[in-house]
Each structure stands twice: as structure tokens, then as C-alpha cells.
Amino acid sequence: MVASKFGRVAAVEQLLQLGSDVNLASSRGNALTYAAANGHKTCIRLLVKAGCNPNTPGSKWDPAVMTAARSGYTDCVRALLEAGADPDARNHAGKTALITATQWGHFNCAKTLLRFGANVNSMSATGDTALKWAARGGNTSLVRLLVQSGAEVNTPSTDATTPLMFAAHVSAACVRELISAGADLHARNTRGQVPLFWGVNSGEVDIVQALIKAGANVNAVSTKGHTPLFYSVKNGDDDMNKILIAAGANVNARDLKGKTPLLSAVQNYHVDCFKTLLLAGADVNLADQAGRSPLMVAVMRQFTVAFNDLLAAGALVNWKDSSGRTALMLAATMCSAAYCKDLLAHGGRVNEQDNEGVTALMHAAEKEIHCDSVKNVLLDSGADVNMVDLSGKTALMHAISYNKNLVCLRVLTKNNALNHQNTALVHCLESENNLASLDKAAVLLSVGFHPVIPEFYRPLLLQKFLLASTCRNKTYVWSFKKFILYREMEMIRLFVSNGVVLQRNGKRAASGASRYANIACALSKGHINLVKYLIANCYIFQEDLNFLCRSKSAQWDTLYRTYSAALGDDKDQRLFLTELTKQPWPLVKLAFIAVSSLVGSSPERAERIRGSGLPSRLQALLNFQGPVSTLPVREWSELKLAFDPLAYAKLEKQRPLLYFWPFGKEI
């Protein structure tokens, strides 16, 4: 076998004289197979003469004649055939030598095999014929030889593909040869494709023109509903589009999903194809099964050329897809302010709702980045920020639920109606992220949202705060102190107004600020108005009382000097500090808290309150023992004793409570 492989004729002769077994085979074949594979004609004749069977294949390889045909050794093929090799011998895949020769484009080998009687229409296990391989390779000479030898031009392979389809993908000459031999122009494979589909996919104008000239149907439909025009559009082949359209292709054909060639051109960013179809009369409002029109697809794909041309061609801007969305909603979702402006300028309805009641503004509100300009465009065009979807959500609530961009909240809240404010705050608290929940709540409060939330949500507020405080700064055990020190008034109002009590967790923090009472922290930074706010709203704890009791001692002057240094020359603030540290009137409510804790709910406590001479509203508040926020919102907002820092400057500064209360001088 080795001598045959390398064509060592003398060695082969000597081994044969010594009696070597000429039919002995390895896993790759016998000596004859090796000689045929390497084109050693003399070795083949010696082996055959010595008794080697020319029709014995190797255990896993092809017959010798097929091996020679694959390599194009015509002399070896002839020698084997003359020695009695079967021209139609098959390998394990069912291929013959003729199929193999045409597959590799060996014309002379194929001609020799045909001369020795090879079956021109033999078929492999996969349905391949010699003509199929010749057509697939674009070998016109081989195609002509096989046709002249009687090859069946319409024999399909296992997927019903014909030789003409293969030829239509590579060679116009082969196409003409097969057509002249009677090839069926309308034959279909299992995908419903006719030869013209293959020609269009090839991109060869000559092939397509040859098929059309021969009578190919330019509107043939595949199993998916596609016509040849769909293929040329998808490939971006505008020259092919023009040929098909000139031959009568339907520019408004629709596939099984309702798509048109125009939709395909827009979806694939093919500008030339799009313009050609538009000029050919394509309907700009034909939508697919999902209801998406070409204009909507142009918006989704950000295809500006198509977008502008479709608007100019009269595309319906308020057309709705199957989910009820319009092009404006899609533009808002894509955060395209320019598209939104153009759609609105062409009559787009800014407050249109989809099947779930969602508006364009709500869609934009869900986006985190680059959408603030879209929201401004929509708001300037009359978008109603108070519209609700079917689940009762406004645009603001959509922003709270899906958006982490706080700028978005500020844009949406500038015109938000009051009747949705509490619900919006609740949506903040229902957010999964603790820090984001409080940040969003702070934004809403900063633009004037009412701080009071439903009572059953107040434990959730406390939970969010405790979890978030650990994330913000672990050194602040009482993170509420941080709000006081940095005067984050909106967050303070949120907790005070809802009566959420923040208790010490028993550990001493590293920061010295956490060792002070709330009032002491506020005074240390000179936040007098904040002190007034905490006292007026009964947000006082035992730590505050202890601080004030200690302040009653000989340390009064020291404390006054310490805290007054933070006030500078503000006379009004110094007056309040003087009253706080040296006169009792701001501490009246503190006294009642102390009385309540000592006397409890006994009749004596109620009697003392009734006999105090205080205003009836304050008496009712003290009897209830709750924070101001437990009162109805109307009374909370009208209660003049609530020293809101924002409103304190407008109130009359007087000290009537000391004189109305008989026990005032004992504080």
C-alpha cells in the first residue's frame, strides 16, 4: 500500500513477485485505493493485473474509481473502468463516481464515466444528482454535457430544490442552458421558493433578467408569504428592486405577518430601497399584523430619512398598533424630542392613550436618561400630567415606579395636581430600593407635595428610613440627626408630619452629634426655626426633655453663649434663643407632655388642661397626646401653633401662652 501510495512502480512489482496480498486493506482502503487517490496509473494496472478487485472499496472509504474521479485523474479513471470497475459504484453516502466528478468540477472525468455507461440520473442518499452539482458550481460545460447525455433537468433533491434553483444562484449561462433544456421556472422547493427567489438572492442582474425573460412570475409567493421583492429589499439591492418593479412586482404585497416591502426597507435602514418603493406607489399606511405602520417602525428604528419622507407622504400620525400605541408614544419611549415635535406638528394627539390607558408622557416618564427634553416637549404641547391609566397611575407614578432619575420627577411635578400627591408619595415608599425611595420622596416634598401619608403606610416609612440610614452612613446611629444638622427640612417634615418616632437602638455612635438631643443638634447649628418647628409639632422625646432640664441649671449662660455664637447678628433668632433658654413660653407644650407622662389619663390631667385657659384647639391636641399630623389635614394646615420654618416669618411673634396658663411660671 505504501509503495502504491507514492507511485514506486519497481517496489510494487517486486512486492507482487514476493506474493503480497493485493486485496489486503487498511481502515483507509487498499493498495488500489491509494494508487487511484494519488494518480498512479501504472501502479493501478499492475495491481489489477495481479488480481486486485477494482470494485472493492476500503472499509470506510470510497471505491477506487470514485477516489480517482474526486482528484480529477482522468487516466486513472479510464484505467479502472477498462479493468472492469463499476461506473455506478456507490460509497456509504450513496454517491457515485459521476456525482463526485461533477461535484469537484472535473469535466474530463465526467465525460469518461459517461462514455463507460455511468447513469447520468443516479441520485445520492440526500437526493443529489450530477446535474445538481454541476449547476451549483456554475459549470456550464458540465451542465451541457449532462443535459446532452440525458440528465433530467427537473429532478428535485430531498428538499425539492431543482438544478435550476442552484444555477440561478451562481450563473446566468447555466440558467439559460437549463431553461433551453426545459427546466421548470415555476418549480417550488419545500419553502415555496421558485428559481427567481434564488436569482434575486444572488444579486446577479443577468440571472434575474434571464429568468424574467423566460417567463418567471415576479409575484410568486413563498410559504412565508414573501415575494422576490421582499428578498431584494431585505438585501438592500435597489437595482434588483427596480428590475422587479419594472416587471410588475406588487409593491404592496404582504407576507404572513402582514409586512410589506416598504416596512422591510424601513426596518433594515435601506434608504434607496425605501425611496424606490415610495416612488413606485407603496402604501405608507399599510401596517403589519401587530398594527405597526411604516411610520411607527421608522420611529422605533430612528430612521430619520424614512420618518421625514413618510410624514411628507401623508402617513397617519395617530394610527394605533394592536396594543393601542401611536407613533408619538413610541417616539416618547425612544426619548426622541425631535420626533415628538415633528409628530405633534403634524397633528399628533398628545393625550392619546393605549390599551392600558398609558399616554406618551407616561411612556417617557418610565425612561431614566435623555428623556427630560421629551417630557418638556409633551408638557409644552398640553400633555395632561393628571391623566391616569387603567391601573390608576399618573405619569408621575410611572416615573416613581420605573425611573431613578430625580430630574425626571422635578420635570413632572411642576404642574402636578394635589389630588394625586399622597398616592405619589406612597409609590415612592413602595419602591424596592430604600435610598431611592427616600430620595424620590424628598423630590416630591421639595416641590410642595403634602407630607401626610395614610396611617397604614407609616410603618413602611419607618422601615425604609432605618434600612436606608445604615446604607447612608453607619456612623450615624440616629440618622435623623443628620437631617437636623444639615437642615434637610423636607425629610424632617415627612417624619414629623406622619408622627414616625425614631427610637435609639441602644448603641452609641462614633459621631458626637448622635449623643445630643434633637433640639441640641438644631441649636448647635443655629437652626432656630427648626427648633420652633419641633417644639410646635410635639416632636419631643425624653432626650430633649433631659436636655432642657439640664439647661435649667447653672449652665444656662454657658448654653446661651454656646448656641448664640452660631446665630451671628440675627436679632430675631437671638430673641427666640433668649426665650428658649431664659423664658418659658416656647416650653408650654413641653410642660404638658411632662404632665401627661406623670398624670397619665387620669381626670386630673384633663381638668388641668381645661383649666389652663389655652385655646380650645391646643387643649384638644394635648388631650389626644399625639403629634399634629394625627389631626385632619385641614386642621393641620390651619393650626397656627405649628411653627413651620417656611411660614414662621409671617406669624405674629407674641408670648400669650405664658399668661393664659396658670402654671406657666413654674416651668
UniProtKB/TrEMBL annotation:
<feature type="repeat" description="ANK">
    <location>
        <begin position="93"/>
        <end position="125"/>
    </location>
</feature>
<dbReference type="Pfam" id="PF00023">
    <property type="entry name" value="Ank"/>
</dbReference>
<feature type="repeat" description="ANK">
    <location>
        <begin position="323"/>
        <end position="355"/>
    </location>
</feature>
<feature type="repeat" description="ANK">
    <location>
        <begin position="191"/>
        <end position="223"/>
    </location>
</feature>
<keyword id="KW-0040">ANK repeat</keyword>
<feature type="repeat" description="ANK">
    <location>
        <begin position="257"/>
        <end position="289"/>
    </location>
</feature>
<dbReference type="InterPro" id="IPR036770">
    <property type="entry name" value="Ankyrin_rpt-contain_sf"/>
</dbReference>
<protein>
    <submittedName>
        <fullName>Uncharacterized protein</fullName>
    </submittedName>
</protein>
<feature type="repeat" description="ANK">
    <location>
        <begin position="60"/>
        <end position="92"/>
    </location>
</feature>
<feature type="repeat" description="ANK">
    <location>
        <begin position="224"/>
        <end position="256"/>
    </location>
</feature>
<dbReference type="InterPro" id="IPR002110">
    <property type="entry name" value="Ankyrin_rpt"/>
</dbReference>
<feature type="repeat" description="ANK">
    <location>
        <begin position="126"/>
        <end position="158"/>
    </location>
</feature>
<feature type="repeat" description="ANK">
    <location>
        <begin position="356"/>
        <end position="390"/>
    </location>
</feature>
<dbReference type="Pfam" id="PF12796">
    <property type="entry name" value="Ank_2"/>
</dbReference>
<keyword id="KW-0677">Repeat</keyword>
